[in-house]
Amino acid sequence: MSPSRVLVLNSGSSSVKYQLLDMRDRSRLAAGLVERIGEQTSRLKHTALTTGETREHHGPIADHQSALKAVAEELDRDGLGLDSPELAAIGHRVVHGGMFFTEPTVIDDAVLTEIERLIPVAPLHNPANLTGIRTAMALRPDLPQVAVFDTAFHTTMPESAARYAIDPKIADRHRIRRYGFHGTSHAYVSRATAGLLGKAPKEVNVIVLHLGNGASASAVRGGRCVETSMGLTPLEGLVMGTRSGDLDPAVIFHLERVGGMSMDEIDTLLNKRSGLFGLCGDNDMREIQRRIDEGDQEARLAFDIYIHRLRKYIGAYYAVLGRVDAVAFTAGVGENAAAVRAAAVAGLEELGLAVDDGLNAVRGDAPRLISPASARVAVAVVPTDEELEIATQTYALVGKVD
User: Fold this and answer.
1) 22, 78, 150, 385: which is the annotated catalytic residue?
2) Burial of 158 from C-beta contacts in 10 A (0-12 / 13-18 / 19+)
3) Is residue 44 over pLDDT 90?
4) In angstroms, rounded to a whole number, what is the distance separating the alpha carbons of residues 151 and 177?
């Protein structure tokens, strides 16, 4: 029997998330997180999902190579080591693939070079992704390594949606266009939503709302993305935990010329000190909701701005698609904040959108409908599973290569 396990790695600048899956039955064998890499307070949390045993280790982990070696040791303790003949491939999340990578890709030197060339448009993410890839390749040089790109799902957008209205020569020279992000989540959720409706993805038009600390929306027509809210970077679009989302570009000039702020200070303001955090000092929707319940007007205004932007995108993407079969909420806020879901579609009954208060209040891990049976447009909560999506794409590609 051919190997069926896929190790999924998501390497950040100071962290590595991982899951080991068996693609015969799509089961999870192990999962974990290494965080604060390079610090004295590093932590590795590993769970053997076959037994439910969780182990934690605290202490300095110098770099990604040390982190992956520690992960390999934990997997080995459970009989799931990286040297197992059952391991078919390692799938890597890569944030930015530009227009060059439109699908999962087996990694070789040329692929590494292109990912590196994209660092200027993803300076926080692609370097960390590359570090994880190179470390894993050094540990298992004989094993297929596959890059799955956050941007790939959005490369089907038409040029009318992907282009900014600036000089095309300047835009092309500097790779300025709307790429979109969270693509693995949008791909998984749009397909799972079609399944929830008992239809094939090609038969369904879906608006996907990925609402976490980072937030993005997409319009998916027949399984293909035709519009998404994030652009050249993850800063564009919805109000997020610490990012501003859409902003008049002249605000930047104003802050520099009138406010005397440097470009680095403005970058920090818009990416790390804006959004919900900038508006009310909290970027946790649970805390914001608690404050609203206590009558906090600052938290209420932050919530209202968040919802206003969200509703605006729902309406815009309804117009883009022409026909909408479902609106799907996903990610941390989308899956857990019933108040956000209710507020986002409130008043949109003329568009066929409504939620059933009882269904909306139910919590669960399974995809579910929260709209009344009579609603013209289904409203769904679909827990995202980016690791499973990466593993699925990786395993499918390795099978084709073999």
Assistant:
1) 150
2) exposed
3) yes
4) 12
